[in-house]
Design a protein that fits this description.
Arc Repressor Mutant, subunit A; 3-stranded antiparallel sheet; 56% helix; homodimer; 3 strands; DNA-binding; mainly alpha; 5% strand; 7 helices
Chain lengths: 195, 195
DNA sequence: GTTAGCATGTAAGGAGTTACATGATTTT
DNA sequence: AAAATCATGTAACTCCTTACATGCTAAC
């Protein structure tokens, strides 16, 4: 059963609605993987090639979304989902296997929430919340047990780190409450506004 | 001029005051690299070997810090700084070459602030602050320029990401102000309390 | 006209993880 | 006596970055 890595899933998600060029995909990935990550082309293009080989996407000549001005740009390749790719995306969107997801994996799943059903969204958010809470617990325990003395700077670094995780948990709590008290909550309908 | 990678520097810092076993080093690294990272042994031990080969550290038979109970544990290796290692650490501690440091590199330098002189501390904090501010600016610009419409979830992810960076900047501002208004501010003296 | 952005790729290498392999000591 | 923690290491592999290589198009 072919594994879908985070990057592949993110690309599948980006191509869900319309085809895009590699260059565009990279910019959009910058959003899905948190606004401060930029994926290198050395990573992106080989991944696209693998996806084509796996039959998940197709490379078409040109015509992305915007009407091409007039004539011959350089060879630009628009990628679009195949049926297999769409099927894979659907399968993955129903999968809330939240254990062992790292930050990037969570962000990518989250950015696809508009196409994820309400029950799965809730399971993902709760799964992430409890894993963060567990780690917070473990770390706090560990710090007590480890009586190496820390100077003021090291202590401040720890405090700051723990605070950030606590904030992340609060953020998740807000989202979870929102999901629970939401009126609608299906896939395809948007969460409140545009489309 | 041999480059000192983050991990090597972190280990140098940990061994500054007393020798430690590999196992202990790993636990302490968990603190310096932010309380939520655990380095694997498959990464740690090869690094220690390289450092021994480079003459930065020495592997001694046993006796860490705690008085050994009675007799024969299994071979435990305590690593300690050589003169070359100590010299390298001193050099690195004076280096505020803050451009291109990633999060981990900053954290490691920060955790060594107790042994860094006041001027270098300030340069490091200010360097980090301005890089974060720059990126914040770029990302905000980029988002305006990129008029791909985002659904509510993607927008929330972005908002949260930007907020986190803003908080990081506030944290740095507090630290910078603190450094500026601090009474003392040399290396070796601690920042306020223990030692 | 020159800078910035658009656009596609490859090759080499760095930094880390996982899984494996082994065994002692301490706590429950 | 079982479970957790201490303790050391290797081999294979994954994922990603950097540096290279190329060339067009839009804006200032």
């Amino acid at each position: 059963m072919a594994k879908t890595d985070v990057l592949t899933l993110a690309i599948l998600g980006i191509l869900r609605d319309r085809p895009h060029h590699g260059y565009q995909i990279r910019k959009l990935l910058g959003v899905e993987l948190g606004p401060f990550r930029a994926l290198s082309y050395g990573s992106l293009y080989p991944c696209l090639r693998r996806m084509v080989e796996a039959g998940l996407i197709e490379a078409s000549g040109d015509e992305p979304g915007n009407p091409t001005p007039a004539s011959s740009r350089r060879a630009r390749i628009a990628y679009s989902l195949t049926e297999a790719g769409r099927a894979r995306l659907t399968t993955e969107l129903a999968n809330a296997g939240a254990s062992s997801w790292d930050d990037d994996a969570f962000d990518v799943r989250f950015s696809l929430f508009a196409h994820t059903d309400a029950a799965t969204r809730l399971r993902i958010l709760e799964g992430r919340r409890s894993r963060l809470a567990e780690r917070l617990e473990e770390v706090s325990e560990g710090l007590k047990r480890m009586h190496e003395r820390h100077d003021a700077y090291t202590a401040e670094l720890q405090r700051h780190g723990l605070e950030q995780v606590e904030r992340e948990i609060s953020w998740l709590d807000r989202l979870i409450e929102n999901e629970r008290s939401a009126p609608g909550g299906d896939h395809h309908g948007s969460a409140s506004a545009d489309h």
